[in-house]
Specification:
Structural class of chain C: alpha+beta
Order of helices and strands of chain C: EEHEEEHHHH
Order of helices and strands of chain B: EHEHEEEHHHHHHEEHEEEEEEEHHH
Helix content of chain B: 25-40%
Strand content of chain B: 25-35%
Oligomer: heterotrimer
Distance between the termini of chain C: 56 Å
Strand content of chain C: 5-15%
CATH architecture of the largest domain in chain C: Roll
Distance between the termini of chain B: 50 Å
Shape of chain C: globular
CATH architecture of the largest domain in chain B: 2-Layer Sandwich
Radius of gyration of chain C: 17 Å
CATH superfamily of the largest domain in chain C: Beta-grasp domain
Shape of chain B: globular
Largest sheet of chain B: 5 strands, antiparallel
Largest sheet of chain C: 5 strands, mixed
Number of domains of chain B: 3
CATH class of the largest domain in chain C: Alpha Beta
Chain lengths: 806, 288, 169
């Protein structure tokens, strides 16, 4: 060694491994407009498909006449359900065990439902042709209110299910009923309520909204009839699942289907499912023999592909007079729209809603969810959350505030009192989960201290007095939210999608010169996997992240994986990456031992290579070992240096956090202004703090939008209202609050690197923080619960109803 | 979202433009900034067979002062209105209002003429022009005529503009130096139309109101000139009681739709609140 | 096809002269993406709300989904593809977006950078509020804007030769 030898710290820094704020490799292309998104694709002979859609929410389709459309020059075909029946694709199975029409088969169940698929030379002609397709409808009574779905005289939405009183998730009790899902001990819970000093009960609704990524859903399907091979490029959060579904639905063997998800312009759950547009494009390409592109417009996106939420949660909490919670009872009425197309693991009709006991030590709990049909679009995706976790977090966090109010306790103190204690982990919840790790008290205390919680309460008190004296028309709310997420779906013992276990995978190949290509079963839509996956590998095998290329989204090259949603990438694929890397390191250790002529047990790992214990000068860097793996492997050892790992997680991970929102509300206009928002997240080991912060900012912004007005509304005849960015609330830089972020680190004990996942926490924890702030502001005027979303006019109405307008 | 087919015309003079419009009647539409018309065409809610692009007519640009009147060419963009020092000095309410229209990109192309001529009750400039008592110059085959902004609007998208006429300029009387003004707009977010908005221009003399003009945006199917509210306030010291009566008079003439911005009852009250706040700010400014 | 006559347009795009015949109803965004293969500007909302299609036309940021290609006849256009420095290195804004983590999925980024480019030309030293107002015609679903604001401040500082603050938190 000489003076030029880099120090250990320098070698570590050169890796840009875990824990460092590595700048993103993706940004080089994205900042130059060189991303490759689906609609950027141009193939020779490519044509364009577009939908004729129903103007009615519930109607019989009595006639479809495409004669005039087909006369238009440039129109190639108009597909209807009758055409799809020939290939047995007029209906498709959903992820939730239901079936869904691909094109209207005799009737429509929601406005803008797909009725016919026009294929034309370009999108201009396709749009012209749509205007020329004549469809005759016979209107039927419309069912919009889920509370009326199971009325005895409610219209029959699904004649196809007539007589089928056993659904995918057990018995159905009405023609518009989908399932009842029950968890927990009903008797124990009833006992807790009978013995309680205090109980509260409230209907807490979480309105229907939509993930609306900036890029809509789109695909290009290309059937090579000579080879019998189908290639589909698409906005797929889970490309391998799409391949398997495509193979199961078509007669094409899976190895002859190539699914490619190129760069994706945001997903947030919208791009998990399989939609009629994909099926129709594939069929159209098979029929025409040329590539077919389908691109949703924004109105189609907001009104047809995958709403989120729409849960109506009757929540009851039992407690002792000192605030100790003793029981939780929740009944959910879940509005699933016309088909049950929820994107949940197959055995979980209400996702992981049974995380609804939250961060609190409930000795008894009981949950029942009833899913029903209405004349609304199907979906029910996890919009930036693990399956139905944001609904659960909202339910319990609103419920705890309502309990605190009844008890006359401070909501932060009530939470502190009931938190699961650090020594209780791993913790068995009353609704069946095993929480891996947590230190809630520390996180909560840090958050309260940082934001100056007690001082804010004092300020609020003074403002309330001033308001009562008529000195101000502004009131102040402090929103407290402490959430526990459940992510990383999931263990094969309880998670699968259409029978495929929800493992994930990584393949790492170290080249002779010591650079790396790695491929995963996940698919980034902005999360920065190309950057962070390389950081994990860099730390594990000591090769600089800059020399590691990460590739996702091509099902021909990537190992099978279940994709990216539900904050599962880091908990599942992140573990697979670490374990694949460790396989490489283990082999490298044997090669290094051979090179250094020592036993492998005499070697120790040191940043970027192996060294002989007690003699650090005797070392082999990973780059040298890589060369040796191809040049002179030890006798009897296979050459090469690569590994694949498929990771079936032993448990979920349970990120948590403490969020505080300080809001000032103009009582006369209902306008709420967020003065401060503080978010403390604990996502276990932090791979890239810069990216974590970015994820938190983005998730909080979505939470802000959802809580404060982002809604898919229907009028009484089932017309979807405001399905454009004029009305659907996507905040601009002007409305969006400033975010303060913070963290604690409680690693997951069962994850190879201790990471838990973070992308969705801010949406899960953010919504209750905003809503609790609004609700908190009005408590002193006698309000118990104000439903979301908190648009200005709804806040104004609440203020008026409380007599605040004098 | 693709517009239907049309024939494109790009005249270089007003006369030429009018001649094209006259020869095609209802089948032709003038195109100025396009940010109202093109979205409607993409939704196929408007399908003109002939589109007459006014972008090539130099005469339609510019801001000029002549005595007590400022004349703004119809194709002057909101971005240009914001940047005009003349307007900034003499009619600062135009800058204040323009900054609340849509977003920066749209303001680069959106024009004053387009904003006032198409009759969309959501647009901000019509009420402002009513408040300022502006006149629109409408040029047709038989020459130009002037119509007061307060007389121009008939119903949503229905105005005094004939199909063969073009709104070529807006003439705005300049309020006296030291006047107070405010445009208060409540909206859900940048880019939205008003839930309700109020324009106020007033002058004070010795603490009481000498003149006061009030107009309201997006609380009926046309902009509303609130004449009675202005009369009630004139001569007052803007005491709470009088303001309350004026607000009630303004609210009484509103008839908003219930939509995503809120139910009618809310939007009516917001018209009143916006007026109250605009009055307070305008008075503050007039007091200096 | 239709009887509508195609119209010649000639314009300068990223410094290059371009001449084409277009159908009058061709939207500028489709002209750029499909005729000229400039796929940097994106289509997000189609109703002029999201700004993903923003390009610079004669020094103005415009939403090319709501402009007909014929309206751009004779114009000078700059798209994201024309933003890099002449030597091919990242411009101050492009670098700022990377340094300050001002993007995630990258879909809004071309429009956002193109808009910020014109904003800084008009106002080389904007306050945070001016930046937020200045990019209020561009929606981002991923970042929450905070780091976009920092990215633009980074670029402004670099272009002004003043101190660049520390990288994203």
């Amino acid at each position: 060694m000489n003076d030029m030898t880099p120090t250990r710290e320098q070698r570590e820094a050169a890796l840009e491994g875990m824990g460092c704020k590595r700048k993103r490799v993706e940004d080089i292309r994205f900042t130059q407009g060189k991303g490759q998104y689906v609609d950027d694709l141009k193939l020779p002979g490519m044509v364009f498909g577009d939908f004729v859609r129903s103007p009615y929410a519930h109607a019989k389709v009595t006639k479809i006449d495409a004669t005039e459309a087909l006369k238009l020059p440039g129109v190639i075909a108009v597909l209807t359900a009758e055409d799809l029946k020939g290939v047995n694709l007029a209906w498709m199975p959903t992820l939730a065990g239901d079936v869904q029409m691909v094109l209207a088969d005799g009737k429509v169940l929601y406005q803008n439902q797909e009725v016919a698929f026009v294929v034309a030379e370009n999108r201009y002609i396709a749009d012209d042709a749509i205007q020329l397709v004549e469809v005759e409808y016979e209107e039927l009574p419309v069912l919009v209110d889920p509370f009326q779905s199971m009325a005895p005289d409610a219209p029959v939405l699904r004649p196809d299910l007539e007589g089928k009183m056993e659904g995918a998730h057990g018995p159905r009790k009405h023609h518009n009923h989908i399932f009842t899902w029950e968890v927990g001990d009903k008797d124990e819970t009833s006992k807790a309520f009978a013995e309680a000093d205090v109980t509260v009960k409230e209907l807490i609704s979480y309105h229907r909204t939509h993930p609306s990524p900036l890029e809509t859903c789109q695909c290009v399907a290309s059937m090579d009839k000579v080879k019998g091979e189908l290639t589909v490029w698409g906005t797929f959060q889970a490309p391998h699942v799409i391949r398997t579904v495509a193979s199961l639905l078509s007669t094409i063997p899976e190895h002859k289907i190539h699914v490619i998800a190129p760069d994706i312009g945001g997903g947030f759950g919208n791009k998990v499912g399989a939609y009629p547009g994909y099926i129709c494009s594939i069929v159209a390409s098979i029929v025409t023999g040329v590539p077919v592109k389908w691109v949703e417009d924004r109105m189609e996106n907001l009104s047809t592909t995958s709403f989120a939420r729409d849960y109506h949660m009757t929540t009851e909490i039992a407690a002792k007079s000192d605030g100790t919670v003793t029981g939780l009872k929740v009944h959910v009425l879940a509005d699933h729209g016309g088909f049950d197309a929820c994107a949940d693991p197959s055995k979980w009709p209400a996702g992981f809603f049974n995380i609804v006991t939250g961060s609190y030590d409930f000795p008894a709990a009981h949950l029942e969810v009833d899913g029903v049909y209405t004349n609304k679009a199907p979906g029910g995706v996890a919009y930036r959350c693990s399956f139905r976790v944001t609904e659960a977090a909202y339910c319990i966090e609103r419920g705890m505030d309502i309990l605190a109010q009844k008890l006359g306790m401070d909501p932060a103190d009530l939470r502190m009192k009931n938190f699961i204690k650090p020594e209780q982990f791993p913790y068995q919840s009353a609704l069946g989960w095993e929480y891996d790790s947590g230190d809630y008290h520390t996180a909560m205390q840090k958050a309260m201290d940082t934001i100056g919680y007690r001082e804010l309460r004092a300020e609020q008190k003074a403002k309330q007095e001033a308001f009562k004296r008529g000195e101000t028309r502004e009131i102040m709310g402090i929103g407290v939210s402490f959430f526990t997420e459940i992510v990383g779906a999931g263990p094969s013992k309880n998670c699968d999608i259409l029978g495929v276990a929800m493992f994930d995978s990584a393949e790492i190949r170290v080249h002779p010169t010591g650079s790396v290509i790695s491929r995963m079963g996940t698919k980034s839509q902005g999360q920065g996997h190309e950057t962070t996956w390389a950081q994990i590998i860099a730390t594990e095998i000591g090769i600089p992240a800059a020399d590691i290329m990460v590739e996702e989204g091509n099902t021909d090259t990537a190992p099978y994986g279940l994709g990216t949603y539900g904050s599962r990438s880091t908990p599942v694929a992140g573990a697979a990456i670490a374990l694949a890397a460790r396989k490489i390191r283990n082999k490298a250790q044997m090669i290094a031992a051979h090179m250094l002529e020592v036993s492998e047990y005499d070697l120790e790992w040191d940043v970027d290579g192996f060294q002989v214990k007690g003699n650090p000068q005797a070392r082999k860097a990973m780059k040298e070992i890589a060369w040796a793996a191809y040049h002179a492997p030890p006798p009897g050892m296979e050459p090469g240096l690569e590994a694949v790992s498929y990771y079936d997680p032993p448990n979920m991970t349970y990120p948590f956090g403490a969020y505080f929102c300080v809001m000032d509300i103009d009582v006369d206009t209902g306008v709420a202004k967020t003065r401060r928002f503080y978010a403390l997240d604990d996502c276990g080991t932090r791979i890239n703090p810069m990216i974590i912060e970015g994820q938190v900012h983005g998730g909080l912004t979505e939470a802000f939008a959802i809580a404060m007005g982002q809604e898919i509304r229907y009028d009484e005849t089932g017309n979807v209202m405001g399905a454009s960015f004029m009305d659907f609330f996507i905040p601009t830089a002007v409305e969006t609050p400033h975010w303060e972020t913070d963290y604690t680190v409680t690693p997951s004990p069962h994850h190879p690197i201790g990471a838990k996942g973070v992308g969705e926490s801010p949406n899960v924890g953010g919504v209750p923080a905003f809503s609790n702030a609004v609700n908190d502001a009005f408590q002193f005027l006698g309000s118990t619960h104000i439903q979301m979303p908190h648009d200005a006019w709804r806040i104004w109405q609440a203020a008026r109803d409380l007599g605040a307008h004098g | 979202m693709i517009p239907g087919e049309f024939t494109y015309h790009r005249p270089s003079s007003v006369a030429e433009a009018v001649a094209i419009l006259a020869s095609h009647g209802d089948e032709a539409r003038p195109l100025s900034g396009g940010h109202s018309l093109i979205p409607m065409m993409k939704l196929r809610m408007a399908a003109p067979e002939h589109l007459v692009d006014l972008g090539g007519i130099a005469d339609l640009k510019g801001i000029a002062e002549d005595g007590d009147t400022i004349t703004v060419g119809a194709m002057t963009t909101q971005h240009e209105l914001i940047g005009s020092d003349l307007l900034g000095a003499r009619l600062p309410i135009i800058r204040e209002t323009s900054l609340l229209i849509a977003d920066p990109q749209i303001r680069y192309l959106g024009t004053l003429g387009g904003n006032v001529a198409n009759g969309d009750p959501g647009n901000d400039m019509p009420a402002l022009m009513q408040c300022l008592n502006a006149a629109y110059v409408l040029t047709g085959p038989d020459g130009a005529r002037e119509v007061a902004a307060r007389e121009f609007y008939e119903a949503a998208y229905f105005t005094a503009l004939a199909p063969d006429e073009i709104l070529t300029a807006v003439k705005i009387p300049v309020p006296p130096t030291g006047h107070g003004y405010a445009y208060e707009k409540l909206k859900r977010k940048v880019g939205d139309y008003a839930t309700a908005a109020a324009a106020v221009v007033l002058t004070l003399s010795g603490g009481s109101v000498s003149t006061c003009s009030v107009a309201l945006t997006n609380v009926a199917d046309t902009p509303l000139y609130a004449e009675e509210a202005g009369s009630i306030l004139t001569g007052s010291t803007l005491d709470a009681d009088t303001v309350k009566r004026a607000v009630a008079a303004a609210e009484a003439i509103t008839d908003p739709a219930s939509d995503g911005r809120g139910p009618a009852e809310y939007r009516i009250k917001m018209a009143g609140i916006m007026l109250e706040r605009a009055l307070a700010r305008a008075a503050d400014r007039a007091r200096g | 096809m239709s009887d509508i006559e195609q119209i010649p347009v000639s314009l300068t795009v990223n410094g290059k002269k371009v001449q084409r015949f277009v159908e009058p109803r061709t939207l500028l965004i489709h002209f750029l993406r499909e005729e000229l293969d400039l796929t940097g500007p994106h289509i997000g909302c189609e109703t002029s709300h999201c700004g993903a299609c923003t390009v610079d036309m004669n020094g103005m940021s415009v939403k090319s989904c709501t402009v007909f290609a014929v309206q751009a006849n004779g114009a000078e256009l700059t798209t994201i593809e024309g933003m890099a420095n002449p030597d091919g290195t990242l411009s101050a804004l492009q670098e700022g977006f990377r340094q300050m983590h001002g993007l995630q999925c990258g879909f809004c980024t071309p429009g956002m950078i193109t808009r910020a480019h014109t904003l800084l030309k008009e106002n080389p030293n904007p306050t945070e509020d001016e930046i937020r107002m200045g990019i209020s015609g561009n929606l981002c679903r991923c970042t929450g804007y905070q780091n976009i604001v920092k990215a633009i401040q980074y670029a402004a500082a670099k272009l002004n030769g003043t101190d660049i603050q520390e990288a994203a938190e």
